[in-house]
Specification:
By secondary structure, the chain is an all-alpha fold. It has helices spanning 2-18, 22-54, 65-69, 77-92, 104-111.
């Protein structure tokens, strides 16, 4: 996957050669920034989900965000991923999220 990311510069340079102009250059810069924001948010969301899964309610007295959100035991990965991404976007963009940190590990991750 990282190899595909490294190819992005070559693809963008090719697009600049085919479609010269400042507007194309600005559009590509915006697209690159959006991709970077999405990639970083994805990594943060994966970390948030991992913390919730690794601190299951049997090992932590107060539970975790997955239990609090009511999605414990579900097999719907799309729901779990979308909730994690929503949490990550909310934290990056100062939005509001109904899924708070429940235990100390989640709180430390949330602060960091």
């Amino acid at each position: 996957r990282l190899l595909k990311v490294s190819k992005m510069d070559r693809i963008m340079n090719h697009i600049r050669d085919v479609f010269p102009g400042a507007h194309v250059d600005y559009s590509l810069k915006i697209a690159k920034m959006m991709f970077l924001i999405f990639f970083v948010t994805h990594a943060i969301a994966c970390g948030w989900y991992l913390i919730g899964k690794e601190t299951d309610s049997s090992s932590v007295v107060i539970g975790n965000w997955i239990d609090k959100a009511g999605i414990a035991g579900t097999t719907d990965m799309a729901l779990e991923y979308s909730m994690s991404m929503h949490w990550a976007f909310a934290h990056l963009l100062l939005g509001e999220m109904d899924v708070p940190a429940v235990n100390k590990w989640e709180r430390m991750y949330s602060i960091g």
